[in-house]
């Protein structure tokens, strides 16, 4: 998975997330998908439906 990939591709490749959180900052919403098997979190811009941040470990995030 890479930055800019679509949310649909995340489901296709990684499957169901272990944990999902949603965060809204200044009217912009981000969804974080955490996958325990790979210890990776993907932050998706809810409006654009694209990955905007990838982190190791379980994080809740937002993108600039």
Distance between the termini: 19 Å
Uncertain stretches: none
> Could you give the count of β-strands?
4
From the alpha carbons, calculate the radius of gyration and give it in angstroms.
11 Å
Helix and strand content put the structural class at mainly beta
Q: Going across the major beta sheet, what is the strand order?
A: 1-2-3-4
Total count of domains: 1
Strand content: 35-45%
**Biggest sheet character:** 4 strands, antiparallel
Helix content range: 10-25%
Elements, N to C (H/E): HEEEE
Characterize the overall form.
globular
Mean pLDDT, to the nearest integer, reads 96
Task: Please describe what this structure looks like.
The chain has 64 residues and is mostly beta strands. It has one domain. The protein is 12% helix and 44% strand. It has one helix spanning 7-14, and strands at residues 19-25, 28-35, 40-45, 50-56. It has a four-stranded antiparallel β-sheet with strand order 1-2-3-4, with helices on one face. Strand 1 (19-25) and strand 2 form a beta hairpin. The mean pLDDT is 96.
What's a quick, concise take on this entry?
The chain is mainly beta.
